[in-house]
Amino acid sequence: MLWSDPADEPPEELRTTQAMLRRAGWLLAVAMVAVFLLL
């Protein structure tokens, strides 16, 4: 690994997209549980 290599972290937009997908996944899971409880 050279000192001139770029940092091994995803760009900001990818990190925000991943966070948004994670929140959407939780929201979807909670919504599915609520639907099953209502049925």
From TrEMBL:
Keywords: Membrane, Transmembrane, Transmembrane helix
Pfam families to which the protein is assigned, alphabetical: MmpB
Source domain of life: Bacteria
Residue ranges crossing the lipid bilayer per the database entry: 20-38
InterPro entries per record: MmpB-like
NCBIfam families assigned to the protein according to its UniProt record, in alphabetical order: morpho_MmpB
Name under which the protein is recorded: Uncharacterized protein
